[in-house]
Amino acid sequence: MIQQSPNAAPIDEAAELLGIDHVEFWVGNAKQAAFYYQHAFGFQCVAYAGPETGLKDRASYVMRQNDIQLVLTTSLLPDGPIADHVRLHGDGVRDVVFRVRDVDAAYAALVARGANGVTEPATQEDAHGQVRRAAIAIYGDTIHSLIARDDYAGAFLPGFVAREVPKTIPGGLGRIDHVVGNVGWNEMDQWVEHYTNVFGFHRFVSFDDSDISTEFTALRSVVVASPKETIKLPINEPAEGKKRSQIEEYIDYYRGPGVQHIALTTADIVATVAELKGRGVLFLDPPAAYYEQLALRLGDMKLLESMEALKEQGILVDHDEKGYLLQIFTKPVTDRPTLFFEVIQRRGSDSFGKGNFKALFEAIEAEQARRNTL
Asked: 65 exposed, middle or buried (CB, 10 Å; 0-12, 13-18, 19+)?
């Protein structure tokens, strides 16, 4: 048996969630979104499915960079689930897909523990092999697909064809570190309980409004992690403050709960951020006094990076007993102030930047003030 939350019944090895396979976005124009992720973030379009491959209602582009896979899907029809999703939410994450050994065992275990099934296990196949897949619902209109692909050797999934990969300079991004969800007022605890009791996850770390607040806004957050901590999913909810928080703004514009941001790792954050800025990616700027306060917070801790380089790129630093981490957040990548990305480098620390929360909130509040939504 694998280790899990003490509140949950045992999970058999066959039903274990092994990690994040890919994240699928439903967007208004997948071709243009693919161009953006290629040229702004350094992804390569490695596979495609659409009318040319037999699909009549959608087109999908698979964007890959090292161990990160993003799938961008658009509707070819004016109605239907994809078009309706985009009409309501704008471009956003539909599916955070988990790899499993046995889809049937995982799906049956999750449903037996209270999960809401969306798609029962089914097999997709082509000349390259077969993939078994199912899906369950989580917060809002977001789902977790379960996928077993060990018997498949094609470009991505059955129905997709390989694309000739151009010689693109990668953006320096490695894998998905965590995926953050926003839920409504007083909904966080029920979703934390859902992940612990249904998925067998455990509380990795918790933050309340005393940890994540400024003079004006606040939120509460709990990070849940799979038993072997290969999947980490922070869940945020608003907390009382003088003004409207970023979580409230997200919920208002996204029209409900959903994925707020995706954290992507890098092995050299200074070089990666400089590269992404050169490609046109826009990042939040920390408050002016951040680096003066940072020197006091770090004390005698030595960084491998120069403080001047971190300040020049606007990179945040936090530390714990295991080491330190470096992180930076993009501005929203859509016109609605909803989805954004985090670039993170861990130097021993497995925390989530508690010491940076105030600075991050102040930077986000400055953007909210520019949008007149604070």
From this structure: buried
Report yes or no: 53 and 67 within 8 Å, Cβ to Cβ: no
Residue 256 has pLDDT above 70, yes or no: yes
Q: Of how many residues is the chain composed?
A: 374
- pTM check: above 0.85: yes
Residue 10 in contact with residue 1, Cβ under 8 Å?
A: yes
Among the residue ranges 191-205, 299-313, 357-371, the one predicted with the least confidence is 357-371
Q: What is the mean pLDDT of residues 245-261?
A: 93
| 172 conformational bin, left if phi > 0, alpha if psi -120 to 50, beta if neither | left
In the chain the domains, ranked by start, together with CATH numbers, are: 13-162 (3.10.180.10), 173-370 (3.10.180.10)
Q: What is the C-alpha to C-alpha distance for residues 256 and 250, in angstroms, rounded to an integer?
A: 8
Is the pLDDT at 281 greater than 70? The verdict is yes
How crowded is residue 339: how many other Cβ atoms within 10 Å of its Cβ?
A: 22
Write the DSSP symbol of residue 155: S
52/72 Cα distance (integer angstroms):
16
